[in-house]
Amino acid sequence: MAIIKELSSHLADLIAAGEVVERPASVAKELVENAIDAGSNRITVEIENGGITYLRIADNGCGMAPEDAPVAFRRHATSKLRSEEDLAAIGTLGFRGEALAAISSVTRIDLFTRRKEAIAGVHLHLEAGEIQVNEEAGCPEGTTIVVRDLFYNTPARMKFLKKDFTEAGYVLGVVQHAALSHPEIAFTLIRDGKQVFST
Question: Which residue, of 28, 75, 122, 175, has the fewest CB within 10 Å?
């Protein structure tokens, strides 16, 4: 009888998520870095309950085309690399194409994105990494990602999270570090309906 078996794609995604997503702050870090790489000059981060139940990142970057948005949630799908030579000249914060796939596998996500030249944008709704809704939508230029119910399908991971106030502090730290390293970008953090940080 064979002992070694290939993992199901769902289980493999959950394991990959564990490498990328430890807490709401790690989700915020990945999504803020994506917003910076998209050429944004304004990024808003909004959280509720420390980012555990609700985390929204909105940017005014380049946005995604309707055909690119679903592909962005696949593992190792990236716009940053085309060949081996590109690995020696990486000039972006993220490039592996793991973040969105990992985050989506342990959350419920709504993505709204529109390119500057497009009349309409696209809305995707994903649960546990599976696209449930893919539709045309009116939305501003750039990308808005709403992440809800972190670890809803992996409750054992919830016990490693701290209190809401502590988790919110970690998210604030992520936004402050990004703001310090990118003074040309206007950052805003809203926590439970109140603006707590702005540059």
Answer: 75
Each residue's pLDDT tens digit, 178-195: 999 999 999 999 999 999
Q: Which two tokens stand for residue 107?
A: 């959350």
Question: Positive or negative, the Cα torsion across 164, 165, 166, 172?
Answer: positive
Q: What is the pTM of this model?
A: 0.85
**pLDDT top residue among 54 and 91:** 54
- What does the DSSP assignment read for 151-169? TTT-GGGGGG---HHHHHH
- Which CATH number is associated with domain 9-81+94-198? 3.30.565.10
User: Between β-strands 186-191 and 42-48, what pairing exists: parallel, antiparallel or unpaired?
Assistant: parallel
Per-residue model confidence as pLDDT tens digits over 100-146: 888 998 999 999 999 999 999 999 999 988 999 999 999 999 999 99
Residue 175 three-state SS: helix
Encoded tokens for 147: 């992440």
CA nearest neighbour of 129 among 108, 154, 158: 108
Per-residue confidence (pLDDT) for residue 81, from 0 to 100 = 44
Tokens linked to 39:
């050429």
Residue 155 makes CB contacts below 8 A (sequence gap 6+) with none
Dist. CA 141–CA 91, nearest whole Å: 24
